[in-house]
Specification:
The protein is 20% helix and 22% strand. The protein is an alpha/beta fold and 304 residues long. It has a single domain, classed as Metallo-beta-lactamase, Chain A (4-Layer Sandwich), CATH 3.60.15.10. The two termini are 22 Å apart.
Length: 304
Amino acid sequence: MNLLALALSLLLAPAPIALGPGRPPPDGPGLRFIDVGQGSALLVVGPAGDVVVIDAGPPGASEALLHALAEHAAAEIDLWIFTHFDNDHVGAFGRALAGPDNLAGTDDDLRIVERWDRGLEGAPDTPAVAAYTAAEAPRRTARAPDRWRAPGLDVAVVPAGTAPERAAENARGLALCITVEGLRVLVPGDLPAEQVAAAASSCGPVDVLWASHHGSRTGISHDVLARTDPALVVVSAGDANQYCHPHAEVLDLLHSRTVWVTGLAGASPHGACPGLAARWGPLHRLAGGDVWVGAGGGGGSAAR
């Protein structure tokens, strides 16, 4: 990348902020990619205070999720969407519902207005899914072109092609195109790259691409990048993940793009995945925690 291209990339990219102890999120609307380890959870805050949550992370991630909600004073979740039912996306839901005191039926239980998912047919038979289905919060099956709107906030389920017969859970998930105060993000869950590309065709160019499947090489491609042309790519991966996510080939593919990673298995030559350190690009950054991308006056700038 030449210096002019690098300068333009930095100018156009949304302005992410790494959150941590002593650094609360700015006021205003935006996207909070919650560091839940090897899993996914996203908090979307609208300009009028509406709250949308995508996925919940793995078992054990409820504290991180509840902490993020508390920092945004989110007493009620207007819409909670689950892209699919793998443990690292739904595992923390049951515990989080009970609120900070971990006692169901008390005043601090999470209040959920709407809950969407891909439908319960063929859902994995796991304790996390059992807790999910047992929850009393209202739920319904979502399909493209379902849409949910609030002031300055638009959440659309977009078509992602047809999953093959007997497809793995990843390929059966939802793809979402979300716009908050003009900041657009494609949320593909863990979909394979071919389905992510199909979803990108409906969503169009985006400011932020949430990398599918935690930066696995199966979740992104040149075609995906051509259709989304993201100013920022966010990868949700765990520090100690055994999959070496994000994959070295993905880092190569994203070499000249702005990338923020919540956690990295091989951030140094002595880490669990030493090959990753050598593939780190000039615009790649390890957040080591939650990533906040503000919309409008919320601490960031939209690329479009």
